[in-house]
Design a protein that fits this description.
Blueprint lengths: L14 H5 L1 H14 L10 H11 L2 H6 L3 H17 L1
Helix pairs in contact: 2-3, 2-5
């Protein structure tokens, strides 16, 4: 990201931002389900800032699957692995 810009291509979401949705949304949910941290704001401040900007866009909020539903899914998978 270029300093002073909200997204990878400037002030508007573009294809790179959409392709990087995995970085913005999924890791935090998996981290919570597994009880570990992959990304921290201290280590990745620019990525964290971008993710906040991206996830706070109304169109993104309307498009992503509900966080609670994904967390329940990953918790169930995590529990099933530990039972096996």
């Amino acid at each position: 990201m270029v300093s002073g810009q909200k997204f990878f291509g400037g002030d508007n979401i573009n294809l790179v931002d959409i392709a990087a949705v995995y970085i913005a949304y999924w890791p935090e949910i998996v981290e919570e389900a597994k009880g570990i941290k992959f990304f921290t704001r201290d280590k990745f401040p620019k990525v964290s800032e971008w993710a906040d900007n991206f996830l706070n866009c109304q169109v993104v909020k309307e498009t992503l699957p509900p966080r609670a539903q994904l967390l329940a899914y990953f918790n169930k998978r995590h529990e099933a692995r530990h039972k096996a």
